[in-house]
């Protein structure tokens, strides 16, 4: 209790800085200035009844939303009388939830992890269960859920060795954090064993697999991707660097300059992870003396060398439009992003080696010879050129990756069964 109170006090002290940061970010996107009261727990009240259960799903941002969509859609089909309330932490996640789920669910931001904000949230959202995606473990959320008789389950739980070591430095705090949880549905056996080593009770742990293998690619995504490819030019080589972070773009642009020496009509689709970086990356492209256009401003001319993906919610469309995908967040110590998105779209995957958030997935792909490591500009340009020159290698990689994807599906049904058992 003392640890949680100390944590809460520090968070209260940091609150002015948090709001200042949101205000600063709103200079790039006014959406950051909206719905601030939700961050303090002032969400629209929902009323549970004997016939209607409220099920609360918390998804951090866009990636978690996309991974959870098949489960949410299946849950609504199987439990039409339930009311789903879906929360997230980011503006981009909020827009994705509203775009994908519309009025089929209610939606708000999850409050900041303050005791009064979380208490207010559960007073207004009297959920039967809170289902948390991956590793969003907030002490006051878990405590207030328990106080308000809401059960808690972590789905698609992952705990990297790096995160395990960090939690393990503070065993008392970690034990107190895990204690209120009712169920942890783990992606892998390694994650399950790490949670157990941190003190989670064995009867609270289950191995359900990775929901990201069950990704559902809609016909609309495929059609929009194919349409974009026609606009880009069906004969020119096109590669994409998706979800890039600061420190990666210069490396990727240098790789593209090398590729252009051999393939003058090649196109790079460069998609920064965060919208506040769009203008910064545009300036960087100019500094590399490459011609470019913005996706937000319409069709791309045939003489453009770079397409800046500065729209939201179109990463899958752009993966589909490319021939080869480099998955960002992997050239710096960010931990990588989900390689199964391009895999599901039958695109060969390249990645840097800093993928500690997706270690097991990359191991599966590497063992199946279904991806390539490329950790600098030279390796990236070499791998891209090889896949352009040798389409049989590209085909073998995509085929092997598709088999990995199919072999590990089924987490959606297992997770639904685990949630059902809690209610």
UniProtKB/TrEMBL annotation:
Site (Transition state stabilizer): 134, 212
Substrates-to-products reaction catalysed: lipid IVA (E. coli) + CMP-3-deoxy-beta-D-manno-octulosonate = alpha-Kdo-(2->6)-lipid IVA (E. coli) + CMP + H(+)
Function: Involved in lipopolysaccharide (LPS) biosynthesis. Catalyzes the transfer of 3-deoxy-D-manno-octulosonate (Kdo) residue(s) from CMP-Kdo to lipid IV(A), the tetraacyldisaccharide-1,4'-bisphosphate precursor of lipid A.
EC annotation from Swiss-Prot or TrEMBL: 2.4.99.12
Compartment annotation: Cell inner membrane; Cell membrane
Enzyme class: transferase
Signal sequence bounds: none
A GO term from the CC aspect: plasma membrane
Listed name of the protein: 3-deoxy-D-manno-octulosonic acid transferase
GO biological process, one term: lipopolysaccharide core region biosynthetic process
Active site: 64 (proton acceptor)
InterPro entries: Glycos_transf_N, Glycos_transf_N_sf, Kdotransferase
NCBIfam families assigned: PRK05749.1-4
Pathway stated in the Swiss-Prot or TrEMBL entry: Bacterial outer membrane biogenesis; LPS core biosynthesis
Keyword hit for Cell membrane: yes
Principal subcellular localization: membrane
A Gene Ontology molecular function term of the record: Kdo transferase activity
Any matching Pfam family: Glycos_transf_N
Family: Belongs to the glycosyltransferase group 1 family. Glycosyltransferase 30 subfamily.
């Amino acid at each position: 209790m003392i640890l949680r109170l100390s944590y809460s006090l520090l968070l209260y002290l940091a609150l002015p800085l948090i709001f200042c940061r949101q205000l600063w970010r709103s200079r790039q996107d006014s959406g950051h200035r909206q719905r601030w009261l939700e961050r303090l727990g002032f969400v629209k009240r929902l009323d549970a009844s004997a016939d209607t259960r409220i099920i609360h799903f918390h998804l951090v941002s866009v990636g978690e939303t996309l991974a959870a969509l098949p489960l949410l859609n299946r849950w609504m089909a199987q439990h039409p009388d339930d009311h789903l309330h879906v929360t997230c932490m980011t503006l981009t996640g909020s827009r994705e939830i509203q775009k994908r789920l519309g009025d089929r669910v209610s939606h708000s931001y999850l409050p900041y992890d303050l005791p009064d904000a979380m208490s207010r949230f559960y007073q207004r959202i009297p959920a039967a269960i809170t289902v948390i995606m991956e590793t969003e473990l907030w002490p006051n959320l878990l405590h207030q859920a328990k106080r308000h008789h809401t059960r808690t389950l972590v789905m698609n739980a992952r705990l990297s060795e790096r995160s395990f070591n960090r939690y393990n430095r503070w065993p008392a705090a970690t034990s107190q954090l895990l204690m209120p949880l009712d169920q942890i549905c783990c992606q892998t056996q390694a994650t399950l064993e790490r949670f157990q080593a941190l003190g989670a009770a064995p009867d609270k742990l289950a191995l359900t697999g990775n929901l990201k293998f069950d990704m559902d690619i809609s016909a609309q995504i495929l059609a929009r991707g194919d349409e974009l490819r026609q606009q880009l030019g069906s004969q020119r080589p096109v590669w994409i660097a998706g979800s890039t972070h600061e420190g990666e773009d210069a490396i990727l642009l240098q790789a593209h300059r090398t590729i252009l020496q051999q393939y003058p009509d090649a196109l790079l689709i460069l998609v920064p992870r965060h919208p506040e970086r769009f203008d910064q990356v545009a300036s960087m492209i100019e500094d590399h003396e490459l011609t470019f256009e913005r996706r937000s401003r319409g069709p791309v001319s045939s003489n453009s060398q770079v397409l800046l993906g500065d729209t939201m919610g179109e990463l899958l469309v752009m993966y589909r439009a490319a021939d080869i995908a480099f998955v960002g967040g992997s050239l710096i110590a960010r931990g990588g992003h989900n390689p199964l998105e391009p895999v599901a779209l039958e695109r060969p995957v390249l990645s840097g080696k800093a993928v500690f958030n997706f270690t097991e997935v990359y191991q599966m792909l590497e063992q199946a010879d279904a991806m390539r490591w490329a950790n600098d500009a030279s390796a990236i340009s070499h791998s891209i050129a090889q896949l352009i020159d040798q389409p049989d290698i590209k085909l073998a990689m995509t085929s092997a990756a598709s088999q990995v994807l199919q072999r590990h599906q089924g987490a959606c049904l297992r997770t639904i069964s685990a949630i059902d058992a809690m209610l």
